[in-house]
């Protein structure tokens, strides 16, 4: 029984190593191809316009590639931040909902209501509700002082 598991792991590891080596070989070939294309473009511009223009053309191409990579990184980072914010909001909501659904908490609240009395608790609950409403309305408004600086 364990031999089958070991054979399965061994086969999947071998396949993974083969695929990884193929991907590394393809990446190396793509890098070499890109180098030769850049050299050919440089020599072509060098023969037609001169050395300064050839260097500036090469720098311009790589600057555009760098800008594209930076913008895509920024967009990806922003998307991750947005997803993390949504996940945090969902976690906060589920925590509050699970607290209200806890039978021990409900039993404790009922015992407190019975011990103190409903007539004495009504003003306290009203004040607590108003305070909770104010806190909930302020939670949605971003605070100017605690805003993170832009990157």
| Classification by helices and strands | mainly alpha
Give the quaternary arrangement of the chains: single chain
Helix content: over 70%
What is the alpha-carbon Rg in Å? 32 Å
* Spatial shape: elongated
Strand % is under 5%
| Helix-strand topology string | HHHH
Continuous helix count: 4
What characterizes the major β-sheet?
none
In the predicted model, the low-confidence regions spanning at least 5 consecutive residues are none
Average pLDDT score: 82
Distance between the terminal alpha carbons, to the nearest Å? 55 Å
What does this structure look like?
The chain is mainly alpha-helical and 151 residues long. Helix 1 (2-49) packs antiparallel against helix 2 (51-100). The chain is built from four helices and no strands.
Secondary-structure topology with pairs:
Layout: H1 2-49, H2 51-100, H3 103-116, H4 118-139
Helix pairs in contact: 1-2
Structure at a glance:
This protein is an all-alpha fold.
């Amino acid at each position: 029984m364990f031999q089958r598991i070991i054979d399965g792991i061994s086969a999947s590891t071998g396949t993974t190593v083969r695929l990884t080596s193929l991907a590394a070989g393809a990446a190396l070939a793509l890098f070499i191809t890109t180098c030769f294309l850049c050299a050919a473009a440089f020599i072509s511009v060098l023969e037609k316009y001169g050395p300064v223009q050839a260097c500036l053309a090469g720098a311009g191409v790589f600057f555009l590639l760098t800008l594209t990579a930076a913008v895509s990184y920024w967009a990806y980072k922003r998307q991750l931040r947005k997803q993390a914010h949504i996940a945090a909001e969902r976690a906060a909501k589920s925590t509050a909902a699970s607290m209200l659904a806890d039978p021990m908490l409900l039993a404790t609240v009922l015992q407190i209501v019975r011990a103190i009395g409903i007539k004495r608790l009504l003003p306290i609950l009203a004040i607590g509700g108003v305070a909770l409403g104010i806190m909930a309305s302020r939670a949605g408004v971003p605070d100017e002082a605690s805003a993170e600086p832009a990157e």
